[in-house]
Amino acid sequence: MRFSRRHVSLPHFSILCSVVLIILTAEKAVSIRFPDRISESVKTASNQPLRTAVFALGSFWRSEAVFGCLDGVVRTTAGFAGGSKVNPDYRSWGDHAESVQIEYNPRLINFRQLLEVFWSSHDSRQVFGQGPDVGNQYRSIIFTNGTEESRLAAVSKEREQTALKSSIVTTQILQLAMFYPAEPEHQKFELKRNPFLLQLMGNLPEEELEKSTLAAKLNGFAAEVCPPKIQRQINARIDEIIRRGWPILREL
After folding, report:
1. What is the mean pLDDT for each group of 10 consecutive residues in the chain (252 residues)?
2. What's the pLDDT score for residue 132?
3. Exposed/middle/buried for 168, CB within 10 Å: 0-12, 13-18, 19+?
4. Ramachandran region of residue 170, left (φ > 0), alpha (ψ -120 to 50) or beta?
5. Predicted model pTM
């Protein structure tokens, strides 16, 4: 799969078309009431702390969307890691790589499964970029926290290298030193390009949007990078809400 700063995916126009179709054809007017905001609580087992994983696989706009779709992922954050510059930002990242931090419930998804998504979501053979995005900030890295994650990462890289045969896997495996979140405008980037979905959520303020599990999933849906089954489930749920004139999308 490819992703470019210059050629980002189009918004999910079918949702908007559905709204227009209902308004034009229904005998009774359908009205979806949008409150100003709604708070969201994260549902996790009280005795099961979340774990964190960080990967670099090209543009963090797309990387955040890819992982946000997954069942068991609670939060995603676009940011920077892998370099020495303190407090990098989008215009001055130094030697960091664009990365995504994933907070996940290990009872629902594990690090090995996240690695499988990592390998399948970018081209690990590319050097100095991903697709049309060129630069060292788009390099491929698995960041690890501890010996077991390092072992799993090394095994998965060896498997990937075997599958690619003569091509060389350029992915680095590094111990995570520090993750720096990117500026707010880069969080949930694809979701923010779809005003209808933002309204359907209840117009969350920025700080809540960044931490929202629902926003993470809808960010992937808006980018159309969710697994097909999840993409269909979300689309069906939204269509149901539109048909019923439901006031708010609280969860999926």
Report:
1. 42 43 34 37 60 97 96 97 95 96 97 97 89 90 96 97 92 97 96 93 90 95 94 91 71 66
2. 81
3. exposed
4. alpha
5. 0.80
Write the CB contacts of 154 (distance below 8 Å, at least 6 apart in sequence): 173
Closest residue by Cα to residue 149 from 47, 45, 55, 48: 55
Q: Which amino acid is at 90?
A: Y
CA-wise closest residue to 252 among 27, 240, 244: 240
Token pair 């470019």: residue: 4
Question: What is the structure's pLDDT at 25?
Answer: 35
pLDDT at residue 129, rounded to an integer: 80
Spatial distance between the Cα atoms of 218 and 226, rounded to a whole number of angstroms: 9
Report angle CA 230, 208, 48 to the nearest 5 degrees: 65
Query: How many whole angstroms separate alpha carbon 63 and alpha carbon 77?
Result: 10
* Inter-residue contact 140 to 122 (CB < 8 Å): yes
Helix axes 60-68, 213-223, angle to 10 degrees: 110
Within 8 A by CB and 6+ apart from 205, the residues are 37
Parallel, antiparallel, or unpaired for β 133-134 and 129-130? Answer: antiparallel
Number of CB atoms found within 10 A of residue 233's CB = 15
